[in-house]
Amino acid sequence: MKELVQYLAESIVNRPEAVEVTETQEDDASVLELKVAKEDLGRVIGKQGRTAKSLRTILNAAAARTHRKVVLEIVDEQ
Questions:
Q1: Dihedrals φ, ψ of 38, to 5°?
Q2: Looking at domain 2-75, which of 3.30.300.20, 3.40.50.1000, 3.30.565.10, 3.30.2130.10 is its CATH number?
Q3: Where are the domains of the chain?
Q4: Were 35 and a residue from 18, 20, 22, 61 both cysteine, which residue would form a disulfide, CB within 3.0 to 4.6 Å?
Q5: In this predicted model, what pLDDT tens digit does every residue of 12-26 receive, in sequence order?
Q6: Given this model, what pLDDT does residue 27 score?
Q7: pLDDT tens for each residue of 27-36
């Protein structure tokens, strides 16, 4: 799942070298944290959150095949 988010995020942003994905395991779910360059944050979120919602939909469809729950968090680093 981590590689999928990495690939999708790098395809969207202007600075793919700044994309960073970390994965943590919890009881019933995997939590993926996506960090991008500050100027690319809007591109990853999209208008009214549409791009972020699409990323989560793709991720949940892939996770359903492995019978796991995956949560995608887009981290705004300050």
A1: -55, -40
A2: 3.30.300.20
A3: 2-75
A4: 20
A5: 999 999 999 999 998
A6: 82
A7: 888 999 999 9
CA-CA distance, 7 to 48, in Å (whole number)? 22
Residues with Cβ < 8 Å from 40, sequence gap 6 or more?
A: 12, 13, 14, 15, 18
The single-letter code of the amino acid at 57 is: T
Other C-beta atoms closer than 10 Å to the C-beta of 15 total: 13
Are the C-beta atoms of residues 19 and 10 closer than 8 Å to each other?
yes
Query: Rounded to whole angstroms, what are the CA distances from 14 to 4, 26, 30, 39?
Result: 18, 32, 27, 9
C-alpha dihedral sign at 29, 8, 73, 45: negative
SS3 24: strand
